[in-house]
Write a sequence for this structure.
C-alpha cells in the first residue's frame, strides 16, 4: 500500500497505512464499469485498498468511514488506454521530454519506467479529472520497435508504477514504413527478422547477428515471443491491420493488442475472429494521411457491433497532457447514436471502453478497471454524468486512498479569478 501522500500541492506528509481504512460510498448512481447499467442508490465498499462489494443492498461494515454520494455518480476511475503521461512536461523542450530513446541505439529494450515522473504537472491535472490509471507507451524513432511501456497509477505519491515492462510497442503502417527504410514491405521484413534474431540469440551467440539488434533488445523480444509481455502494434489502414493479424498467426504465442485501427471497421469481422483486442482513437474522421482515408467516428461502434473487444485510447492525440478528454470522447460516441446513419456506443458500452476495456486489453481486468469485488479501489465520485462536459469529480480514490484534487491549473485559476494587490506579476500593475 502507499504510505507517502501529498497533503497539499507542495507539501509532503507521512500518512498512516492506507490499509487501515474501510470506506463505504453510499447512495450514488453506481457504475460498475463492466458494461452493465448504472445502479440507483448503490454502495461500494473498499477495504485495505480493494473493492470488497459493490451494488444495491450492500451492507456497510462496522467502523467503515461512510461517504454520502446521494445525487452523484460513482464510477471506477478512468483507465486511459494509451498515453505518454509522465514522460513529458513540455513536448517542445528536450530536457523535459523522455518519450523517445531512438538515438540511444537500442530499440525493444528501452524501458519507459525509469522516466515516468510522478511529479510532472499533467498527472495532477488528469487525476483531478477522474483518470486513475494509464497505459504509458514510448514513441518510435529510428526503429519500428519503440520499447517497453508501463501501466501507471496517478496517485499523489512517489510510486507511480502499477506494472513496469507491461508491453512492447511497435509501429507499422506509414510510421513503421518510414522507420524501416521507406516501405511497408521493409517494415514487415524488419519485424520478422528481429523476432528471428531474438530466437537465434536464445539458441546461442554464435547464431546471433548483433548488427540487426543488440543483445538487450533480443532478450526483451524473447519475452514477447513467449507471451510473457504483451505486444501493442500500431496499425491504421485496413490492409495494414490484416497484415498484422497474419503476424499473429505466424507467432501464435504472442499476446497482441491492436492500437489506432482507424480503418478497423472495414475488416472488423477479421479482427473479431482473431480475438485480438483493440485500443482505438475515438474521433478520427478526417483523411489527414493516406492510411486514414477511411477514418470515421463510427469506427469504434461498428467494430463493437462486429464483436471486436474495443476500448478508447488517445493515440498521438495530446497523449502527454490531456487524458482528461477521454470522458468527452466516450460521451461523443454516445451522442453519435443519435446521428442518422452513424454508429456509436450505448452509455454503458462507452464507459466500459474507458474503464474495464483497457484493463482487459492489458491483461489486468481481474485487478483493474471495474468496481467488482477483488479489484483495486480506484473510485471516482462525480457531481453529474461523467460523460457530460459539465460534470467533474468531487472525490477521487486510488488504491482506496482519497486523492488531492488541487493542481497547477486550478491554482492558477483561483489566483487570477479575483486579483489581489501584492500577489500579481508585474504585467498586472498597469
Amino acid at each position: 500500500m502507499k504510505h507517502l501522500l501529498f497533503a497539499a500541492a507542495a507539501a509532503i506528509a507521512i500518512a498512516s497505512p492506507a490499509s487501515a481504512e474501510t470506506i463505504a460510498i453510499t447512495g450514488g448512481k453506481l457504475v460498475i464499469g463492466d458494461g452493465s447499467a448504472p445502479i440507483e442508490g448503490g454502495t461500494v465498499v473498499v477495504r485495505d485498498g480493494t473493492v470488497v462489494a459493490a451494488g444495491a443492498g450492500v451492507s456497510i461494515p462496522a467502523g467503515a468511514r461512510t461517504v454520502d454520494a446521494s445525487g452523484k455518480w460513482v464510477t471506477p476511475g478512468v483507465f486511459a488506454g494509451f498515453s505518454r503521461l509522465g514522460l513529458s512536461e513540455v513536448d517542445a523542450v528536450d530536457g523535459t521530454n523522455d518519450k523517445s530513446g531512438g538515438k540511444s541505439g537500442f530499440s525493444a529494450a528501452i524501458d519507459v519506467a525509469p522516466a515516468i515522473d510522478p511529479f510532472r504537472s499533467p498527472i495532477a491535472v488528469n487525476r483531478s479529472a477522474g483518470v486513475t490509471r494509464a497505459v504509458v507507451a514510448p514513441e518510435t524513432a529510428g526503429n519500428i520497435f519503440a520499447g517497453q511501456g508501463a501501466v501507471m497509477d496517478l496517485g499523489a505519491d512517489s510510486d507511480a508504477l502499477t506494472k513496469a515492462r507491461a508491453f512492447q510497442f511497435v509501429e507499422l503502417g506509414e510510421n513503421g514504413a518510414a522507420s524501416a527504410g521507406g516501405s511497408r514491405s521493409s517494415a514487415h521484413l524488419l519485424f520478422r527478422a528481429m523476432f528471428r534474431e531474438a530466437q537465434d540469440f536464445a539458441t546461442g551467440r554464435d547464431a546471433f547477428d548483433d548488427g540487426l539488434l543488440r543483445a538487450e533488445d533480443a532478450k526483451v523480444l524473447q519475452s514477447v515471443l513467449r507471451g510473457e509481455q504483451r505486444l501493442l502494434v500500431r496499425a491504421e489502414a485496413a490492409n495494414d491491420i490484416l497484415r498484422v493479424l497474419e503476424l499473429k498467426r505466424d507467432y501464435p504465442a504472442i499476446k497482441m493488442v491492436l492500437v489506432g485501427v482507424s480503418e478497423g471497421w472495414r475488416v472488423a469481422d477479421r479482427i473479431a475472429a482473431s480475438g485480438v483486442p483493440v485500443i482505438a482513437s475515438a474521433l478520427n474522421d478526417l483523411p489527414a494521411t493516406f492510411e486514414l482515408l477511411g477514418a470515421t467516428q463510427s469506427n469504434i461502434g461498428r467494430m463493437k457491433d462486429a464483436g471486436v473487444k474495443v476500448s478508447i485510447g488517445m493515440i498521438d492525440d495530446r497523449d502527454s497532457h490531456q487524458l482528461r478528454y477521454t470522458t468527452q470522447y466516450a460521451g461523443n460516441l454516445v451522442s453519435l447514436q443519435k446521428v442518422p446513419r452513424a454508429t456509436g456506443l450505448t452509455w454503458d458500452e462507452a464507459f466500459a471502453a474507458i474503464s474495464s476495456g483497457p484493463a482487459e486489453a492489458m491483461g489486468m481486468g481481474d485487478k483493474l478497471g471495474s468496481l467488482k469485488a477483488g479489484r483495486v479501489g480506484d473510485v471516482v465520485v462525480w457531481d453529474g454524468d461523467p460523460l457530460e462536459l459539465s460534470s467533474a469529480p468531487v472525490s477521487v480514490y486510488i488504491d482506496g486512498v482519497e486523492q488531492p484534487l488541487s493542481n497547477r491549473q486550478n491554482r492558477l485559476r483561483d489566483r487570477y479569478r479575483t486579483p489581489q494587490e501584492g500577489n500579481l506579476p508585474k504585467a498586472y500593475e498597469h
Remarks:
- The first strand starts at residue 4 and ends at 6.
- The chain is about 25% helix and 25% strand.
- The chain has a mean pLDDT of 89.
- The two ends are 51 Å apart (CA to CA).
